[in-house]
Amino acid sequence: MTNPASLSQEARMREQVLDALSAVYDPELDEPITSLRFVSSCVATADGDVEVLLRLPTPQCAPNFAFLMAADARRVVRAVPGVRSVSVQLEDHYTGDEINAALAGGQGFTGAFPGETEDDNLEALRALFLRKALIARQSRVCQEMLDTGAGPEQVVSATVADLPDGPEAGRCLELREQLGIGHGPESPAFVLPNGDPLVADQLTRWLRGARLVRTSLEANGGICRSLLEFRHKLATEPQEVAG
Amino acid sequence: MYEKNGEQYFIVDSHMHMWDASPDNWVKGQEQYAKGWIECFHAYMGLGPPETHWPIEKFMKYSDEDFEKDVFQDGGVDVGIFQSTYLLEWYKTGFNTAAANARMAEKHPGKLIVNGRFDPRDGDLGLKQLEEDAKKFNLQGVKLYTAEWNNGSRGWRLDDEQTKPFLEKCNQLGIKNIHVHKGPTIWPLDKDAFDPRDVDIAATDNPELNFIIEHVGLPRIEDFCFMATQEPNVYAGLSVVIGGLMFARPRFFAKVMGELLFWVGEDKMLFGSDYGIWEPKWQIDGFLDWDYPDDSFSDYPRVTDATRRKILGLNAAALYGIDVPKEFQVSEEAGAPAAKEDAELVETA
User: Fold this and answer.
1) CA within 20 to 30 Å of A192's CA: A23, B23, B75, B79, which one?
2) How far is B118 from B139, CA to CA, in rounded Å?
3) pLDDT grade, residue B151 (50/70/90)?
4) 3-class secondary structure, A53
5) CB neighbours of B215 closer than 8 A, spacing ≥ 6?
6) Which residues lie closer than 8 Å to A86 by C-beta, 6 or more apart?
7) Tens-digit pLDDT profile for residues A65-102
8) Nearest to B348 among A63, A116, A205 (CB)
9) Neighbouring-strand partners of residue A25
10) For residue B219, what are the contacts with CB-CB under 8 A and spacing of at least 6?
11) Above 50 in pLDDT, residue B186?
12) Given B222, B255, B262, which is nearest A213 (Cβ)?
């Protein structure tokens, strides 16, 4: 018979694990795997044994991205206080067996695919997509400031402290942190991918470039969402307004 | 020549195939790959209008008569360019080799151009083969797949040392048009085929060659666009862009076209139907009618009669030295090349 106390402990543990998983982002779409509905199952015992199942939109999703997400999931769950053991499994993926075995054995990407790849930490790939995400998100915040009356000079001289409250600006600062780009209150509100501040005569080009990056990211996001919904017969989420 | 509303248009279809993927042509032991490949292509056909879909049996092997009706009669294609795709590991006589395409081209003199291929990993033998093919098929172009696996290698790049002699050889042989497949692929793991940086370097090193990026790196178009603004000899191949998006995802298609018109410009975009994946007629007809769906696209370059004429035929005709009768040409000033702002923008990049 299940003890009510341990049940609530289980529920608490599960909640903490899910909360931790919400910090794992799809590197390309820059959204948490939890809101993308990539976490298909999460089971935690009162003793801290956790099993997470991940499902991706298609069995052919790129193995490097799949590996990054699964490895990140494992890392954040292990860091949850009270967790004793973690199993993260990628389900129904054409390289799932290789990735699951490498994860369980604590190996890197080359461990999953010996002889097929030389890129073990995938950090360059991650950084590339973090920069793209930063360009896309910053430009949405910037466009919003321009739309509500700010001029080009005002926008480029704004500091982090001037940024509007909200998840978009908040995520920009997280991305800057991960990329090692300064983000203190006095730092420029908007930066180029290399961390240099944006200047007024670059603004038009920067916004156009960012729109192009957003078109690509949104297209991928749209494709992933519809594929996942179709494959797992999920209810359709409201479509994001294209920016 | 395609006729619509009393107007006549010169059409060059820069990307087509004449393949045999029927079970009789599957290599023993490789049936699952041969079948999987053609079924995947067939699924793409589903992105076109339902009345243009074929049953899988016809899709695996269409006849000369089908080709002639779809391409010349209904599609009004003046000149078609075959992009040969070998896949000899899976298909006994190949999927669509230059030789197979040449058989069709011989039936229609002056109407069909055959492009060849090379793989730098084949070394000296590959160079010799390229020379022979150039002579035999009068090659003006090649189609390259950098993500292809070969004998333990997991792909190659256009800026590899081993590729240099091949591009030099192309130049010597008068093979000026290098079509490169840059689109979504699964394998290999660490040389993502969407990454066009290798083309950037090869295009700078070989200013006398033209690089046509097939499928513009879809669905990740931004790296391609940024590169194309900086390289005068880089072109956008619209195969799959029109066929895969115009009907199935019209708003995304409008955005992609708007971005391409802005960054790459209407003088450097080439129509390709990717026949037999899709018939050319609905693509040409739809594109002649096409414009942005609403005012939210007002920031993108406008689409004019000259834009459509260039993309549907004149740009490819210029690359392949095809004579275009005077009545189909547009004046030098017509239309809008990539915005002047670009040039300034690039300098500040």
Assistant:
1) A23
2) 12
3) confident
4) strand
5) B181, B182, B183, B237, B239, B240, B241
6) A50, A52, A74, A77, A78
7) 899 999 999 999 999 999 999 999 999 887 889 999 99
8) A205
9) A32
10) A216, A219, A220, A223, B184
11) no
12) B222
B341 against A18, higher pLDDT:
A18
Per the DSSP assignment, residues forming a β-bridge with B4 are B7
User: Does B93 reside within a domain?
Assistant: no
Using a 10 angstrom Cβ sphere, with 0-12 exposed, 13-18 middle and 19 or more buried, the burial of residue B325 is exposed
Identify the burial level of A82 via C-beta atoms within 10 angstroms of its C-beta, where 0-12 means exposed, 13-18 middle and 19 or more buried.
middle
Mutate to test the interface with A, among B32, B39, B189, B252 (most CBs of A within 10 A): B189
Tokens of B88: 């000899």
Subunit contact B222:A216, Cβ cutoff 8 A: yes
Burial group, residue A93, by CB count within 10 angstroms (0-12, 13-18, 19+): buried
Residue-level pLDDT at A238:
45
Establish whether this prediction's ipTM goes over 0.85.
no
Judged by CB atoms closer than 8 Å, whether chains meet at B225 and A64 is answered as: no
Cβ B116 vs Cβ B133: under 8 Å: yes
- Please tell me the distance from the alpha carbon of residue B275 to that of residue B277, in angstroms, as a whole number: 5
* Number of residues in chain A: 243
* Contact at CB, A62 and B192, closer than 8 angstroms: yes
Picking from A191, A163, A159, A161, the residue whose alpha carbon sits closest to that of residue A175 is A191
Residue A81, exposed/middle/buried by CB under 10 A (0-12, 13-18, 19+)? exposed
Q: Is residue B40 included in any domain, yes or no? A: no
Phi, psi of B147 (to 5 degrees): -90, 0
Indicate the number of domains in chain B: 1
Domain of B259, CATH number, reads: 3.20.20.140
> Facing residues of A89 across strands?
A53
Structural domain harbouring B155: 63-80+112-347
Residue B56 buriedness (CB in 10 A; 0-12 / 13-18 / 19+): middle
Q: Which residues of A touch B (CB under 8 A)?
A: 60, 62-64, 94, 109, 113, 116-119, 132, 201-202, 204-205, 208-209, 211-213, 215-216, 219-220, 222-223, 242
Of the candidates A30, A38, A54, A66, the one whose C-alpha atom is nearest the C-alpha of residue A218 is A30
Which of B190, B240, B259 is most worth mutating to test chain A (most A CB atoms within 10 A of its CB)?
B190
Considering chain B, what is the average pLDDT of its residues?
Answer: 90
